[in-house]
Write a structure and sequence with these properties.
With 318 residues, the protein is of the alpha+beta class. It is built from 8 helices and 17 strands. Strand 4 and strand 5 form a beta hairpin. Bound molecules: adenosine-5'-triphosphate.
C-alpha cells in the first residue's frame, strides 16, 4: 500500500505542516524527529483525524482525503495502549471485528490466530490490568491487526516500556511487519530505534521533511547539520565561512584513526565505556570532538592525543 502526501498543508495554531512525499508500500517507514516537529500530525492526517487545509492524500493510488477515519481501514497503536480496561485481552482484540459485524465463529478464530501471532497464546481471558506493559502493547498490536488493515500506524508504541523490553518488542514488530508485508508507519523520536528497524526513514523538522531515505543513507550522507546532528553520534565543528552562510565540518566518532587525513590534537576531558568501545571527549583548538577507540587501547583522561580523519569521511554541511 503506497502512501502519498500530495502538497499537504495544515495550520495548527502557530504550527505549519507542509509535506509532499510518496512512500512505497510493504515497508516499515519511520517518521522521526524531535518533539513538536509534526510526526503525530502526519499520522492524524493519514488516519483521517485531521483534514488537510490543502493537498490530497492517497493510499495505493486511491484519494482518501475525504474518506472518514472508520472507513479507511487503518490499524492504529498508540503509546499509552488505549485498551478497554473492562474487557479481557481477547475481547479487546475482538472489538473492531464486532463493530464490523464479523460472525462469532470467525471472530473467535481470528482472535486465537492473533493471540498466537503476538505470542500471547492462552492469554485471551486475562484482564487487561493483569498484563504487563509489554503484554498490553502486544494486545494493542493484535487489536490493530485484527480487521486486516491496509496500513498500520504506530505512534511511539514502545515509549512506555523499559529499554530492554523496547528492543525485544521492536524486533518482534519488525519480524511481524515483514511476515505480513503490511505497510507500517512508525512514529518515534528515537533515532536508534528508527535506524534499527526501518526500511525507510522520514526525518522531520518544524512541520517539514528534512531528509528521507534508507537508514544507511541518512547515517552516511546527512544533507544538513540538523540531519547529521540528529542521527547517530556526530561531530559538527564550525568552519570559518567566507560567505554569510555558516558551514560545518561533519564526521563520525568511529571515522577517526591515526593514518592520513585531517589532523587534530587535543586533551581527553572524559571517557565513556560503551561495552565494545570507548568514546572520549577531546578538547581541541577547533572544539570538542568525540573519538571512539578500542577497548584494548590505553587512553586515559588528561592524555594529549593526536588523531586524524580520512578526507573521504569528512563532509561539509550547511
Ligand atoms: P511529540 O514527539 O512531542 O509527540 P510531534 O512531532 O508528534 O511531537 P505534533 O504532535 O505533530 O508533534 O505537534 C506539532 C506541533 O503542532 C506542536 O507544536 C503542537 O503544539 C502543535 N499542535 C498540535 N495540535 C494543535 C492544535 N490543535 N492547535 C494548536 N497547535 C497544535
Amino acid at each position: 500500500m503506497s502512501l502519498k502526501f500530495k502538497g499537504i498543508k495544515k495550520q495548527l495554531g502557530n504550527f505549519s505542516f507542509d509535506v509532499d512525499i510518496e512512500l512505497e508500500g510493504g515497508m516499515l517507514i519511520s517518521l522521526l524527529g524531535p518533539s513538536g516537529c509534526g510526526k503525530t500530525t502526519a499520522l492524524r492526517i493519514i488516519a483521517g483525524f485531521h483534514h488537510p487545509d490543502m493537498g490530497r492524500i492517497y493510499l495505493e493510488g486511491e484519494d482518501i482525503t475525504d474518506v472518514p477515519p472508520r472507513r479507511r481501514n487503518i490499524g492504529l497503536v498508540f503509546q499509552n495502549y488505549a485498551l478497554f480496561p473492562h474487557l479481557s485481552a481477547g475481547e479487546n482484540i475482538a472489538y473492531g471485528l464486532r463493530t464490523r459485524k464479523w460472525g462469532r465463529i470467525a471472530i473467535r478464530k481470528r482472535v486465537d490466530e492473533l493471540l498466537e501471532t503476538v505470542q500471547l497464546k492462552g492469554y485471551g481471558k486475562r484482564r487487561i490490568q493483569d498484563l504487563s506493559g509489554g503484554e498490553q502493547q502486544r494486545v494493542a498490536l493484535a487489536r490493530a491487526l485484527a480487521p486486516k488493515p491496509r496500513l498500520l500506524l504506530l505512534d511511539e508504541p514502545l515509549s512506555a516500556l523499559d529499554a530492554k523490553l523496547r528492543r525485544e518488542l521492536r524486533r518482534e514488530i519488525r519480524i511481524l511487519q515483514q511476515e505480513l508485508g503490511i505497510t507500517t508507519i512508525y512514529v518515534t523520536h528515537d533515532q536508534e530505534e528508527a535506524l534499527a528497524i526501518s526500511d525507510h526513514v522520514v526525518l522531520m523538522r518544524e512541520g517539514r521533511v528534512e531528509q528521507t531515505g534508507r537508514p544507511e543513507e541518512l547515517y552516511t550522507d546527512p544533507v544538513s547539520p540538523f540531519s547529521g546532528g540528529f542521527i547517530g553520534i556526530s561531530n559538527l565543528l564550525p568552519l570559518s565561512s567566507e560567505a554569510e552562510e555558516r558551514k560545518w565540518m561533519f564526521f563520525r566518532p568511529e571515522d577517526i584513526g591515526t593514518g592520513e587525513g585531517r589532523m587534530f590534537r587535543g586533551k581527553i576531558r572524559e571517557i565513556e565505556f560503551y561495552g565494545s568501545f570507548y568514546q572520549a571527549l577531546v578538547k581541541t583548538s577547533e572544539g570538542l570532538i568525540k573519538v571512539n577507540f578500542p577497548t584494548n587501547h590505553p587512553h586515559k583522561v588528561s592524555d594529549e592525543i593526536t588523531f586524524s580523519v580520512p578526507e573521504e569521511n569528512l563532509k561539509v554541511l550547511k
